Structure formats: structure tokens, C-alpha cells
């Protein structure tokens, strides 16, 4: 394989950093759209599209969660890679919770990139939205894939009534997504992959400022954009799920735990207990994935034993539904 096999969305193996040691995330390159328009280049249709994901990766996990929420299991296929990577990258092999690739018989996800773009020699990341009809990647940007899953396939969705990106809230959702992405979703990587003390010191404050801002907002409303859960919540969800279990220790994001926040911890339990969501979460994949795929942070490959968290504890946030 010639393609680069960097770790989740630009995090390796060898992390991209600037001359101060700040983590640099590179953009996804496949950015085409599936739409409900029958005349579009990629029209929505049942059975035509397939997701390749890692349930260890927060970016890919959000697509699996939206697929479950919308009831698209019989509409958009799903293959799960082995959470433990080797030198050739994300692999389809027999492993607990992994599926193999029944669609193309790929051994490695890099084959999907090379089939889509001859001579491809760049980053291989999850998720991938694959078009079975034309045999190519449509999109590998999770924030765009979840918008497609929310709207383009409603004709066949089991739960089309769930609208996660309602027109009346889109401006607010987009604004929340912007600061949550910068401060939290990407912010944990700015902290965890800082290559100097200066870069770490610069990144740690904004991360916890963002958590405090979220916590304050959630004191007044059940969800980030109001009384209904939206894409703003589901973009934050995978990062929050991993915070105390991975980022607090492995990434040195240890100023406070998530459970130390008055509103964020019950809010996270509220999201996790939403019907069909828990089945999209694989704790083993993300705990082992982070701890075994990042020898620069955990050279001994030791899997930590805790903390013990009860995600099924009653959250009591129904009072904020209004």
C-alpha cells in the first residue's frame, strides 16, 4: 500500500505539528454530497451507500450514532474496522466487534482510497461514505456525512420524524458546532498531541473554558440548542464519552474530570440513554484503540482499569425539556 496511514483524521504515528509544537489537523479531501435529489450526481437510495467506520474513532462514531438514531440500518450499510491498527493502517480482520468488509473484500481501508483516486498517497481516515454503484468514496468528512444521514435518506428511514438539523435552529446549531469543535472536539487533540510545554499550556485553557461554557449553557436548557437534541449534541457526544475514560489520563487533559461538572455529566448520560444510541457505542474499541494505537503516549501499551462510570444512572434532565 502506498497511501499514508495516519491515525484518526490526521493523528498518527507521526503527528503533524508546527514549529512551536502545536497539533495541526489536515482537512478531509473527499467532499461530495448524497442528496434526496434523484437527478444529483449521488442521489440517495436504499442499499447504494455504505459506511466504513472505526468505533474507536470519535469522528467516525458520530456517523454510526446518527445512522442508529434515524433507523437507517437497512438503508445504509456499515462495516467496522479492527480498532487496533498495524503499520498498514485501518484493517478489516476478525476481531471482537469488527465486521470485515463484505462489500469489496478490502483487507485495509487504504484500498478504498486507492480505488477512488489512482496513486493516492495521503492520509487514510475514518469515516468513509462509499458509493457501491460507482465504486468510490463520496465523502470522508464526518460533519458532512451526519448531515446527509439526517436528511437525505428520510424516505426510507425508520425514524424520519427525528430532525437533527431543523431549519429554524440551523444558525444556532452551526454557531455552537463552531466553538465546540474548536474548543472540545479538536481541543482535546490540541492538548493530547502538543509537542512542547508551550503548546500544551496554550491549549489546556481553551479546552476547559469550552467545557465550562457548555456546562453553563446546559444549566438552562436540556440540550445545547434548546429542548430537542440536534447535531450539535451528537457532534459533542463521542468526545464527551471518551473524556474521563481516555483524554483525562492519556491526553493529560486533567484539570478536571467530566464528572466534576454539574451539568455535563448528567447531560452525557441523557444522550447515552437516548433510544438506539448505546448500541452504537463500543467502549472496548475506543479504550483499547487509544491506548494501543498511540505508543508515543503509552509506550508500554497498558490498558487502564478505570474509572468506574455508570452511564445508566438516572440523569433527571427531563425537567429542562420545557
Shape summary: globular
SSE sequence, one letter per element: EHEHEEHHHHHHH
Runs with pLDDT <50, length 5+?
1-13
At CATH level 2, the architecture of the domain at 167-285 and 308-320 is Up-down Bundle
What's the quick description here?
The chain is mostly helical. It contains 9 helices and 4 strands.
Main features:
322 residues; mainly alpha; Glutathione S-transferase Yfyf (Class Pi), Chain A, domain 2; four-stranded mixed sheet; 9 helices; globular
How would you describe the overall organization of this protein?
With 322 residues, the chain is mainly alpha-helical. It has a domain at 167-285 and 308-320: Glutathione S-transferase Yfyf (Class Pi), Chain A, domain 2, CATH 1.20.1050. The protein has nine helices and four strands, in the order βαβαββααααααα. The protein is globular, with a radius of gyration of 19 Å.
Summarize the helices and strands and which ones pair or pack:
Elements: E1 49-53, H1 58-70, E2 77-80, H2 110-116, E3 128-131, E4 136-139, H3 142-151, H4 170-185, H5 187-192, H6 197-217, H7 231-250, H8 264-272, H9 283-293
Parallel strand pairs: 1-2
Antiparallel strand pairs: 1-3, 3-4
Helix pairs in contact: 1-3, 1-7, 4-6, 4-7, 7-9
Amino acid at each position: 500500500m502506498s497511501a499514508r496511514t495516519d491515525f484518526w483524521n490526521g493523528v498518527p504515528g507521526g503527528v503533524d505539528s508546527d514549529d512551536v509544537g502545536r497539533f495541526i489537523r489536515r482537512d478531509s479531501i473527499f467532499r461530495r454530497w448524497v442528496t434526496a435529489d434523484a437527478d444529483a450526481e449521488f442521489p440517495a437510495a436504499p442499499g447504494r451507500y455504505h459506511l466504513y467506520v472505526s468505533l474507536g474513532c470519535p469522528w467516525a462514531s458520530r456517523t454510526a450514532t446518527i445512522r442508529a438514531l434515524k433507523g437507517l440500518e437497512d438503508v445504509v450499510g456499515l462495516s467496522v474496522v479492527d480498532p487496533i491498527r498495524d503499520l498498514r493502517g485501518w484493517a478489516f480482520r476478525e476481531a471482537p466487534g469488527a465486521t470485515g468488509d463484505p462489500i469489496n473484500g478490502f483487507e485495509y481501508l487504504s484500498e478504498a482510497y486507492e480505488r477512488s483516486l489512482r496513486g493516492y498517497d495521503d492520509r487514510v481516515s475514518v469515516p468513509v461514505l462509499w458509493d457501491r454503484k460507482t465504486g468510490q468514496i463520496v465523502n470522508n468528512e464526518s460533519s458532512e456525512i451526519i448531515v446527509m444521514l439526517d436528511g437525505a435518506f428520510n424516505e426510507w428511514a425508520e425514524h424520519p420524524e427525528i430532525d437533527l438539523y431543523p431549519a429554524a435552529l440551523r444558525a444556532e446549531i452551526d454557531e455552537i458546532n463552531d466553538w465546540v469543535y474548536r474548543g472540545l472536539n479538536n481541543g482535546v487533540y490540541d492538548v493530547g498531541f502538543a509537542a512542547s510545554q508551550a503548546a500544551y499550556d496554550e491549549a489546556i485553557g481553551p479546552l476547559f473554558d469550552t467545557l465550562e461554557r457548555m456546562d453553563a449553557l446546559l444549566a438552562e436548557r436540556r440540550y445545547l440548542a434548546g429542548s430537542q437534541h440536534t447535531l450539535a449534541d451528537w457532534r459533542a457526544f463521542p468526545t464527551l464519552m471518551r473524556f474521563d475514560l481516555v483524554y483525562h489520563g492519556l491526553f493529560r487533559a486533567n484539570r478536571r474530570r467530566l464528572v466534576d461538572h454539574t451539568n455535563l455529566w448528567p447531560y452525557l448520560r441523557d444522550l447515552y440513554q437516548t433510544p438506539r444510541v448505546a448500541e452504537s457505542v463500543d467502549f472496548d474499541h475506543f479504550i483499547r484503540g487509544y491506548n494501543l494505537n498511540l505508543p508515543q503516549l503509552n509506550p508500554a501499551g497498558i490498558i487502564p482499569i478505570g474509572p468506574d462510570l455508570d452511564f445508566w444512572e438516572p440523569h433527571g434532565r427531563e425537567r429542562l425539556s420545557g
